[in-house]
Design brief:
Layout (H helix, E strand, L loop, with lengths): L6 H15 L1 H5 L7 H22 L11 H26 L3 H23 L5 H21 L4 H19 L4 H26 L8 H27 L2 H7 L2 H13 L6 H40 L1
Helix pairs in contact: 1-9, 1-11, 3-4, 3-8, 3-9, 4-7, 4-8, 5-6, 5-7, 5-11, 5-12, 6-12
Length: 304
Amino acid sequence: MRRSSSVPGVVFGAGAFFIWGLFPAFFGLLAFASPAEVVAQRILWTLVLVVVVLMATGRLREMRGVDAKTWRLAAVASAALSLNWGVYVFGVTSGHVVECALGYFVNPLVTVAFGVLIFRERLARAQWAALGLGAVAVAVLTVDYGRPPVIALALACSFATYGLVKKVIALDALRGIAAEGMVAAPFALAFVVVSAVAGDSEFGSGAGHTALMMSTGPVTLVPLLLFAVAAQRVPLSTMGLLQYLTPALQMAWGIAVAHEPMPASRWAGFALIWAALAIFTTDALRRARNSRRTRVQAIGAGGS
C-alpha cells in the first residue's frame, strides 16, 4: 500500500501514541495487584479480545497457516513484550514513571545499537554521535540515581528486541498479536490458576478490581490497531517524530501528577538524551528526504 502523509493517518498515529502516553494513569490504578498478575491478566484479556476480532472478521482460520518458524519468532516477541510489560507495570506502581519515560526516549538509540551489533549495520557520523551522547547520558543518570537506570534500560532493550522481531515476522499486526498471545497464554493461565488456588489473586476480589483487570485487553489492543493503521498511511519519518509523544506525556505525568523528584543532574541526563535524539531524528529526516529526491530523479530519468 502506498504511504501518504494524510491527516487521518496522522490522527490514528497520534491517537496510538497519546493513549500509550496515558498508560501511567491507567496502570497506576492497578497497584493493588502484583506486576506479574497484571501482565498475566493483560495477556489473557488481550488474547480474548483479538480472537473475537479475528472471528468477527472471518480471519481466525488464517492462524492455521502459521508455520513453525513464525511461531518461534512469535515466542521470542512474546517473551520480550511480556518482560517489557512487567517492568513497566513495576516501574509505574513503584514510583518510577519518569524512569519508564526515559526508557522509551532511549529506545530508538538502543534499536540503532542493536542494528550495529546484530546486523553489522554501518552508521553515519551523526548516528555515532547520537549513540555517544546517549552513552554519556546513561553515565550521568547512573551517577544521579546512584545506580544504573535499570528500569529504563530494561524497557528500551526489551522493546527494541520486540521491534526487531516484528520487522522479520511474516504476520500482520492482528495475527501477530494473536500469535504472541497464544504462545504466552498457557503460562499466563497457569500463573492465574496457581495464584487463585494460593489465595494471592486480586482478580475476582471485587467488581472494581475485576473490571480493571479485564479492561487491560481493550486498553492494550486499541492503540496497537491504531498504530497498525497509521503505519500503512504515514511515512516512517513522521511516525518517528510522533513516537516521542508517548515518553513526553509519561514524563509530564511523572513530574506534574506523581511529583517524582527531578534534580538538576537528572535534567542534565535527559537533556543529553534529547540532544542525541535531535541529532538522530534530523539525520533520519535528511536521509528520507534524499531518498525521496533520488527516487523522483530516477523516475524522471526513466521517463525522459
